[in-house]
Design a protein that fits this description.
With about 375 residues, the protein is an alpha+beta fold. The protein is globular and about 60 Å long. Among the domains are: about 120 residues, no CATH class; about 30 residues, no CATH class. It is about 15% helix and about 20% strand. It starts with 11 loop residues before the first helix and ends with a strand.
Length: about 375
Amino acid sequence: MHNSSPIYYSSLCQILGALLVLSGCSSESPPMASGSPDEFYAALLSKRCELAFACTNLGSEGSVLPQVSGSRAGCEELLAQTGGYGPRGLPTASTTTGLAFNSDKAQACIDAMTCGTVLDNRMPVACREVFDGAIAEHGDCEIDAECHGPNMYCREATPDACGGTCEASSVALGESCSASEECFVSDERSEVVCHFDSDGAACRTPQDVVSMAGETCGRTRVGTTVTVAKCATGLDCVSAIGGTATCGGAFAPNGTCSNDAGCAADLICIGGTCMERAFANAAGDACASDGSAPNCNPLFRLTCGTSGMCEPIGGTGTTGDACTNSEVFSVPCDARHFCDASEHCIPRHPDGAECGGGAQCESGSCNYDSSSGQSTCGPGC
């Protein structure tokens, strides 16, 4: 079981939320200034933005965050606003109460993030021991970090369960699995993932490499080793029909692409075609009021004015501030509020209050009761 932030916004924001697991090209991070959990999350946020921009040519998974944030500084502001710290499997900054923080493991976790972790959506082994709970094997749990000791995780009772029991990772390399947490890791410096391919799912060792022009890219497997090959900066991983994907050069407007790195400078990949940047990220930037690109970035609380320039909607997304509920580009409220029917931000509801969706609840979970026909806010996973 994984704990992830429930704070994602509708439409564009839901898409971004699914991609906030971004991590990229491995590089040593500056040492944290202190050994506190707050310092760890601040350093983690900075690292994720560094990697999101460094590895945009990894594939479509790596392109959304740079598009909507526009810069490293904008990325950090956006992740802080949405609470999307990650990586998958870590508790969120607000759910660490009662967990022991191992400061000696924190820096190793940040340094271990690689391009392969985003493509395989995996958490580095070094991150497993940053937080340690007190629940022993077979004890009831809600998130992995509550379980005590290495190679322990919270296994769901059922796929849609909101809880489970602490169990030991025991599946050996090459054996069948259903999730990476099941795979036993014998050395904290190694990585083992549950990798799915035409032969089924099994615990395998990932290996991250960089490919040059004409070389193979993407994922390939030999035995129990899965190679995750990203293209060098300025190259795109281009799939050939019936053939192997290889690294190629950048394309001009309307050229075929699989991600931003396959397009020339100032272009992004939208729907497999190189196009002009979709988002304008600052007040005063030109925009298209008819909904075509460029759109004013709603995550920076911008809308397209009648003058054809981006205008701030005002406020910071707290109580009483304006917001929008459009189906495509909604201007959101902050993490503690939601946009009501009158398009104003109001505080999220406490447990027990009626709700119309998880975004309206403090817990992030709106539970339907079939006996009463009502939905109320309640504990979330």
